[in-house]
Amino acid sequence: MSHCWQKTLISETSTIKQALEIINSEALRVAVVVDHNQKLLGMVTDGDIRRGLLNDLLLTDSVAKVMNLNPITALQYTSKEQLVRLMDQKQILSVPLLNRDGQVVGLETLHSALSKEKYRNPVFIMAGGFGTRLRPLTDNCPKPMLKIGDKPILETVIRSFIKAGFSDFYISTHYMPEQIHQHFGDGSDLGVSISYVHEEMPLGTGGALGLLPEDMPRDLPLIMINGDVLTKVDFQRLLSFHLENDADATMCVREYDYQIPYGVINGDGNRITSMVEKPIQRFFVNAGIYVLSPRIIHSVEKNQKIDMPTLLESHMEERQKVLMFPIHEYWLDIGRMDDFKQAQIDIHTLGLD
């Protein structure tokens, strides 16, 4: 997503000339018309203005007279893959991104969506767990090295980041680290850099941050992910969200539904006030993917044992800049045997193998 999309926003009281100036001065080549609450009203392209002028409109007329009132839009967390498909189908070059209230929160262009940006941001993969719930498969193999399709889970995770433009990887190990080292080495076979940090004893889900080397890029946010997660989340959009919101930490969350298998009764004393048959409760759950700014990373001391919730809660109290990023793309935490079997089915239809 373009970082200068805000410059394309204009009000419906703006003139056609003002819209034309934006179109000519900004690389995005469109003007996005919004109301005072930043809700989308329409879009204007060079073609819209030309047609208006041919119909005897003046440059001093309101942009509302030429704007497209029903532009193609997408929700803000739509993946680049889906956006490219949408723009190709509709033969358009840009799509405004809206939140669920209809407010414009971004603008994706076909050029930007197709570009292969390169990121210096480190990717830190947690691969030290015992995988006890997947025994006996993990008796002689660390869980991230179990094969899904024809590749270890960890290789699929790394390749998904490479595809998104990331090349600087750090892997945290503990259980049977030699198998991971032997398979990936320094990453040169994959055309990337891979370094390792080893937990002599389990340090919790956040403690390995304190083991990261001093020569790691320390001025950039880091993406952290559990080594047993298969996902098609758009890492580029996740990183953009984190940066645009000046977040200390961004946690990916997944909506989880739980249906109570009974009728729920509410009462006041012995009087029933309402009855709900088998209600569904919805929660956001931790998806095991984070973006962490340097202030979070530097706050973890070497060999400090700490879990991510505890670490993030301590920073929530400081700046209230710990945010959540709902993911709607495919996501599977391979924690149980049923998950492992499901991953074997899913891998061939996801484009991750």
From TrEMBL:
SUPFAM superfamilies hit by this protein: CBS-domain pair, Nucleotide-diphospho-sugar transferases
UniProt KW keywords: CBS domain
UniProt entry tagged with the keyword GTP-binding: no
Pfam families: CBS (PF00571), NTP_transferase (PF00483)
SMART domains assigned to the protein according to its UniProt record, in alphabetical order: CBS
Domain CBS: 1-62, 67-123
InterPro entries: CBS_dom, CBS_dom_sf, Mannose-1P_guanyltransferase, NTP_transferase_dom, Nucleotide-diphossugar_trans
PANTHER family with a match to the protein in the record: SUGAR-1-PHOSPHATE GUANYL TRANSFERASE (PTHR22572)
UniProt-recorded name of the protein: CBS domain-containing protein
